[in-house]
Amino acid sequence: MNEPIEIRFPEFVWIWNRLNNHTTPAHHLRIARWLGHAWRRNETRLLLMCFRGAGKSTVVGLYCAWLLANRPDLRLMVLSAEQSLATRMVRNVRQIIRRHPFCRHLHPRHGGEWAADRFTVNRPGTSRDPSMIARGIGGNITGSRADVVICDDIEVPGNSDTAEKRAELRARLAEIEYILVPGGTLLYIGTPHTPDTIYRTESKPGQPPAHLAGFRKLVIPLVDAEGRSAWPDRFGDEKIAELKTRVGPRSFAAQMQLVPQPPEDARLDPADLMPYDDELTLHMANAGLRLLLGDRTLISASAFWDPAFGVPGAGDRSVFAAVFLDADNHHYLHRVAYLTHDPAGGTDAATQLCRQVVRLAAELHLPSLTVENNGLGRFLPGLLRAEMAKARVPCTVLEKASTRSKAERILGAIEPLLAARRLWAHRSVFATPLIAEMREWRPTGSKGAHDDGLDAVAGAILNEKMRLGRGAATARTEDWRVPSGGFTARQDFKP
Predict the structure, then answer these.
(1) In this structure, are residues 218 and 25 in contact, taking their beta carbons and an 8 Å threshold?
(2) What is the 3-state secondary structure (H, E, C) of 180-247?
(3) Among residues 44, 137, 406, 458, which is most buried (max CB within 10 A)?
(4) How many helices and strands in the chain, by DSSP H and E?
(5) Exposure class string for 98-113: b at 16+ Cβ within 10 A, else e
(6) Residue 303: which residues within 8 A CB-CB, separation 6 or more?
(7) How far apart are CA 406 and CA 443, in angstroms?
(8) Which residues contact 367 (CB under 8 A, 6 or more apart)?
(9) Angle between helix 452-462 and helix 406-419 axes, rounded to 10 deg
(10) Same fold, 9-220 and 270-465
């Protein structure tokens, strides 16, 4: 058993919050009671899963300071997906030790190690390992020793989106058993990003053995079985509804309810598209140019070209998609064009395709468009810029390489808008192969199914966040986008 403690952990948390003029949310007290009880009972294999934004890392940082306050000889290691994330927690614990009234005896008396990613408190005896150290899971941790290892958000989309990455992550985590001293405590905290998450404590048919089998766990979703929010002051009913709309049902279930959905269950139903017939009109008013869709003023445009140079009717498709946004955050999928070239046209395929994109950019009054430059698309941006200049179309050409999996891009971009009924589509879009792609699409792949149009639409939606400033398209004199701020006028004219 661990040594008796002078102050229980919930009181330690309450005092810190009172010192900083903060209240203590009910779920923070619940976590504190659970951690304190586990320490007193000498339970050494723990899993804390809590909704995103719950402040779980803050409570665990206080837990680390509390442990050191009662056992200054402890050695703690924080592991995260990235070194910077682990360092953030160590830096926070160091601040708590500096200011918490029950940690005064921990302040180093003769300087010593007190860095952002590691520090050593005033403790009995000597040890080659610091009191607390931060490490990224991809770094070298061989040779270290720890009494407590905290895996803080060790699973992220970048290391868990494929079976190979998940296997590599489990292999790295197995190294912890060689670092942890006999009887040491291992605490995982995080939210799941995949149904085959490392946070599983029970094995399921068809999946690898549960990585955390036998761990004692505390799971706190945002909304409980009775529909009550775990943190009503920050996540009220209106905020929860807004969040569901913004991130989509699948992401909300995984990150806020801690129940990741199997990817094979995902669907993109074209019936959720909102059709419209309006065309774009460029309108000159006293305030300047405005781009209208019917009677709606548009504030942003995003176009994406996913190029391919296969024989027409075979292989990957070359697809252009353009999405516009209004002030109410409605997305208008105004054009989806499946581009083809004529092998007997007398001009090379790349030039033919670029000229088609130039015509679309001019027709849609696009201030910019993005070209996926993976693979064959690497040389296209330069050629497209030349064709834009030749046609005197003032559209900025951006380049982007895709790093996320195609299924992840498509789901992350399109599904939330469909679920929220915020993705409108021009009638012309319903006559393209995109509708068949939506019906046939499966995240795990489907034999013979195409997804090039979906990938282009996802690219246009995702790149909308990269809005250009008004000066980006230097050749453009007709910029219809609503300015986000004011302008600076010269005042240094001589009389």
Answers:
(1) no
(2) EEEEEEEEEEECCCCCCCCCCCCCCCCCCCCCCCCCEEEEECCECCCCCECCCCCCCHHHHHHHHHHH
(3) 458
(4) 14, 16
(5) eebebbeebeeeeeee
(6) 320, 321, 322, 323, 360, 361, 364, 366, 368, 369, 370, 460
(7) 9
(8) 301, 394, 395, 396, 468, 472, 473, 476, 479, 480, 481
(9) 70
(10) no
Task: Tell me the C-alpha distance between 326 and 297, whole Å.
Answer: 6
What's the CA gap between 402 and 459, in Å, rounded? 9
Q: How many CA atoms lie within 13 A of 490 on its CB side?
A: 3
Contact 71, 17 (CB under 8 A): no
**What is the rounded CA–CA span in Å between residue 387 and residue 350?**
11
Q: Taking a C-beta distance cutoff of 8 angstroms, is the pair 192, 155 a contact? A: yes
Cα–Cα distance between 190 and 160 in angstroms, integer?
13
Class of domain 9-220: alpha beta
Rounded Cα gap, residues 197 and 210, in angstroms: 9
- Residue of 319, 326, 322, 327 lying closest to 461 (CA atoms): 322
Helix axes 380-391, 349-363, angle to 10 degrees: 50
Q: Is the pTM of this model over 0.85?
A: no
pLDDT in tens, the chain (495 residues): 444 457 999 999 999 999 999 999 999 999 999 999 999 999 999 999 999 999 999 999 999 999 999 999 999 999 999 999 999 999 999 999 999 999 999 988 776 789 989 999 999 887 889 999 999 998 888 888 999 999 999 999 889 888 899 999 999 999 999 999 999 999 999 999 888 899 999 987 777 789 999 999 999 999 999 999 999 999 999 999 999 888 888 889 999 999 998 866 778 999 999 999 999 998 876 667 889 999 999 999 999 999 987 555 555 789 999 999 998 889 999 999 999 988 887 889 899 999 999 999 999 999 999 998 876 667 889 999 999 999 999 999 999 887 777 888 898 899 889 988 899 999 999 999 999 999 999 887 766 678 999 999 999 999 875 443 333 333 344 567 755 444 444 444 454
Q: Which two tokens stand for residue 73?
A: 């000889």
Domain 270-465, second-level architecture: 2-Layer Sandwich (3.30)
- Counting every residue written for the chain, the total comes to 495
Q: Are strands 368-372 and 296-306 parallel, antiparallel or unpaired?
A: parallel
Q: Which pair of tokens denotes residue 221? A: 């979703």
**Domain limits of the chain?**
9-220, 224-261, 270-465
Which two three-digit tokens encode residue 214? 């036998």
Q: What 8-state DSSP symbol labels residue 468?
A: P
- What is the rounded distance in angstroms from the CA atom of residue 28 to the CA atom of residue 56? 7
